[in-house]
Amino acid sequence: MKNKGKGGKNRRRGKNDKDESSKRELIFKEEGQEYAQVVKMLGNGRLEASCFDGINRLAQIRGSMRKKIWINQGDIVLVSLREYQDSKGDVIQKYNPEEARLLKQYGELPENFNLEEGDNLDNEGSDNDDVEFEIDDI
Predict the structure, then answer these.
(1) 118 within 8 A of 97, measured Cβ to Cβ
(2) pLDDT tens per residue, range 100-121
(3) Rounded CA gap, 49 and 39, in Å?
(4) CA separation for the pair 91, 53 (Å, rounded)
(5) Residues 72-97: pLDDT tens digits?
(6) Can you give the pTM of this predicted structure?
(7) Is residue 71 helix, strand or coil?
C-alpha cells in the first residue's frame, strides 16, 4: 500500500516561515499581563521568568507557540498572569531583540534593565582581556 500523505517531520523542517522574520505589530501589555525575562528553561514547555513587577514566576509556553517559536534564557516575553495563582503564568508572546529595544524606548521596560542580547555581541569582539604573559629567555 502506497503512502498518500504529504510527508512528515522532514517536510515541515524544510519550510521557511517568513511571518516571523518580517515586521510585525508590536504588542503591548494589557490588564493581567506582565513583561518578563527568561531566567531558566525547565523543560516540558515550562520556564522560570523574572517579571518586571519584581516576582519570579513559573511560566508555561502556550500550545500554539510550542515547537514553533523557540525561547532561550535571557529572552524578553509577555506573560499572562493567572487570577487564581500569582506565582504562575503563561507565555503568550516572545519579543525579538529589536522589539525589546523598542519597548525600552517607549518606556514599557524599566530603565535600569539592560538588554543582554546586545551586550553579548559587544564583548565577543574585544581583544583586551587583561591577561598578560611574561616570556623569559632560556
Answers:
(1) yes
(2) 888 888 888 887 777 664 443 3
(3) 5
(4) 16
(5) 999 999 999 988 988 999 999 999 98
(6) 0.67
(7) coil
